[in-house]
Automatic annotation (TrEMBL):
<keyword id="KW-0862">Zinc</keyword>
<keyword id="KW-0805">Transcription regulation</keyword>
<keyword id="KW-0678">Repressor</keyword>
<dbReference type="InterPro" id="IPR002481">
    <property type="entry name" value="FUR"/>
</dbReference>
<dbReference type="Pfam" id="PF01475">
    <property type="entry name" value="FUR"/>
</dbReference>
<protein>
    <submittedName>
        <fullName>Fur family zinc uptake transcriptional regulator</fullName>
    </submittedName>
</protein>
<dbReference type="InterPro" id="IPR036388">
    <property type="entry name" value="WH-like_DNA-bd_sf"/>
</dbReference>
<keyword id="KW-0238">DNA-binding</keyword>
<keyword id="KW-0804">Transcription</keyword>
<dbReference type="InterPro" id="IPR036390">
    <property type="entry name" value="WH_DNA-bd_sf"/>
</dbReference>
<comment type="similarity">
    <text>Belongs to the Fur family.</text>
</comment>
<dbReference type="InterPro" id="IPR043135">
    <property type="entry name" value="Fur_C"/>
</dbReference>
Amino acid sequence: MHGDSQEAALTLAEEYCRERGEKLTPIRRKVLELLLNSGRATKAYSLLDEMRQIHPGSAPPTVYRALDFLLSAGLVHRIESINAFTVCHDLTQCQHGILVVCQQCGTVTELHQPKLRQALVAQIEDAGYRLASDEIELKGLCAACQAAEAAATAAAGSAASVAAAK
């Protein structure tokens, strides 16, 4: 996220917290900023490593408490399948859509298709299940990783053809 839009997102998050009677403390703000900077799902210990570069005394509970707050405020999502966190794309208007997670690079896309979500939940309930959380995650491979994979396969095929021709 670019500097101006990132600062706007942080300001929006602060106002949102204030409206809820809560405070986006400097540590919470920094964790949110680190997630905004990463642009993808990030593991808590990666956030801790980044925090320690800024605040050398940072300990795991510091980051986990900030993440718990950001989760409860609806500002971030926890990606269960890879045990990581990502900023909610709607920030203060989280709709709990369907999250599509790239298993290669950790990029997360939120799909806001209420009818699709309702149909999926209905099918799950018809099968006798109850969802454990509001989040629905799908695993996949993003377009950039698909392109990289295709290029690597093509390069490997070209190398094999050259070797066979000798």
